[in-house]
Amino acid sequence: MHLKELIIQELDQTSELLLAEVLDFLKFLKAKSRQEMLEVSLLSESSLQKDWLLPEEDEAWQDL
Fold first, then answer.
1. How far apart are CA 24 and CA 37, in angstroms?
2. pLDDT tens digit string along 7-20?
3. Tens digits of per-residue pLDDT, 36-63?
4. How many Cβ atoms are within 10 Å of 22's Cβ, its own excluded?
5. Are 11 and 19 in contact (CB under 8 A)?
6. Where are the domains of the chain?
7. Neighbours of 29 (CB within 10 A)
8. Residues with Cβ < 8 Å from 22, sequence gap 6 or more?
9. According to the model, what pLDDT value does residue 6 have?
10. DSSP per residue, 5-59
11. Across residues 9-36, what is the average pLDDT?
């Protein structure tokens, strides 16, 4: 059985009160994941910026 099916099976046997907590937790995990991806992007930007500002980069992208 796939993980998603197992989760759905557990959800089907869960009270409404607990489902509200599960929903809150799932939203928290998704927001945390988005935040971590944003942080990685921002950290990458500073390390790649030195290459982006080179004249060679401008020349390589001028036809797009």
1. 20
2. 999 999 999 999 99
3. 888 888 778 777 777 777 888 778 888 8
4. 14
5. yes
6. 3-61
7. 10
8. 11, 14
9. 96
10. HHHHHHHHTS-HHHHHHHHHHHHHHHHHHHHHHHHHHHHHHHHHHHHHTSHHHHH
11. 95
Using alpha carbons, select from 3, 25, 22 the residue that is nearest to residue 13.
22
Give the pTM: 0.55
Q: What is the pLDDT of residue 62?
A: 83
The percentage of residues in the chain with a pLDDT greater than 90, rounded to a whole number, is 50
Tell the residue number behind the tokens 């796939």, with chain if given: 2
Return the H-helix or E-strand segment holding 59.
Answer: helix 55-61
Note whether 43 and 32 are within 8 A (CB).
no
Give the total residue count for the chain. Answer: 64
For residue 37 the two structure tokens come to 């991806």
